[in-house]
Amino acid sequence: MFLDAQTNLVIDDEKEQFFNSQSKYTYEEYIQKAVHQVKLFLDRDQFYSGDFISDFASKNHLINANDSVNLTIDEALQEIKDLYLDHTIAFHHPTYVAHLNCPVLLPAIVGDLVASSVNTAIETWDQSTSATLIEQEMIQWVCNKMRLPDTSDGVFTSGGTQSNFMALLLARDEYAFKHFGLNLKENGWSDVVSKFRFFCSEKAHFSIKKNAALMGMGYSSVISVPTDDKMKMKPEALVQAIEREKQLGNIPIGVIGTAGTTDFGSFDPLETISKIAKEYDIWFHVDGAYGGGYILTETHQHLLRGVKYADSVTIDFHKTMFQPVCSSAFLVRDTRHFKYVSHYADYLNPLEHRDATCPNLIEKSIQTTRRFDALKLWFTLKMTGAKTIGSFLEKVHYLALDLYYNIKDDPCFEIAHKPELSTLVFRYRAIGIDCDAIHDTINLYIKNTLFKSGQASVASTKIDAKVYLKFTLLNPKSTIDDLLNIINMIKDTGRNYKTHN
Questions:
Q1: Where are the beta strands (DSSP E) in 250-346?
Q2: Mean pLDDT throughout 344-360?
Q3: N or C: which end of the chain has fewer CB within 10 A?
Q4: Which CATH fold topology does 387-500 show?
Q5: CATH number for the 121-371 domain, one of 3.40.720.10, 3.40.710.10, 3.30.565.10, 3.40.640.10?
């Protein structure tokens, strides 16, 4: 009897804790109260509170898990307000211009809420049913936008790093099988693989080298190709690099063209690179994590024409389609190449039960359990529309150009490039000082001081070992006045440093 009473107590408690038909009103209450706290977050004046990590020491009691505490929803939300919402970075704020973090669209948030609540696992048909069809439709939509052939396919991923990993993996395994009859998935490493070489711009994303290392090929398997004064890969340098590696006894197997580099937003000459890849019979991957979304614009479509020749493509919807993270996709020209990541488990997707009419998306993914991230994009396309998204992207591009023209003749600044996308890289120069080391110190001081004060968040990078500041513009609600306000903060902070040092 005692055991039965204990069981009933647990079950009664579960009615209020679990998401089910019995808790729908509690669910509504919790969501409404959470929305209230998020609204307070939106009312914050600054992008960041400016607190140091040491300031959070006094909040350790909020961070620490305590098995004996059972807070009410109001108590828990108050604690997360004090610990997180009052201090987290506000990417929607006009003084946040640091990294590739975009403000998110309301329809996407609705999709995220629905997906999180229902908690669909997208890997097999019997767990997802029509959710599979929605993801497939979103994949086909973006494949069509990229003008990939009817054989193309894709899968949602956690981000550009995972998508680029899949590109290198498929390129390596396809080359090994096609040219050497090697089944690396089945039999593992072969010595010839140590001679395989990928080629990418010296401005390409770090994930290319990182992923090559994770695949056991090492950083040295990725050859960096020089760029021109517009930060684009030089085609003639690519050919020279390929020929040089061949003379060394190495084997070129793939080239990565970047559509929108992280620092400069520059587009490699994709059409020319595709011809070089075809001539050498090697894999052509386009990393469009940043710039791929600009396929929806009129201003940048010409820069993406070469994508239709790609063997694979990376695109991040959570960078330039205003989606909450994670929302990214990996596309392939030929769906048959997914055989290099497919696996058939008896309990999940046995081969003998394979049915093309009821696909199991796990056959295209290196992940098993996956969220229904495609629903966010579905809501966005249905409610906002691709044309409107394109107009948002064009606005931030023109905003970057406007800022460039506003400061390019200012003696306080040295500008690294004219924006091709929505980033601007420049450095503050103290009048009367010629020492690069001092300017490096001043620019880092500016960046850190503005961040710590909560006034503005700008990024930094290096060109020829010199420190530069970077604006990454992804907020269509920002204005040129907002940006010039940050520029004035930079000037004031730079002058203040010079005065006191």
A1: 251-258, 283-288, 312-316, 328-332
A2: 71
A3: N
A4: Aspartate Aminotransferase, domain 1 (3.90.1150)
A5: 3.40.640.10
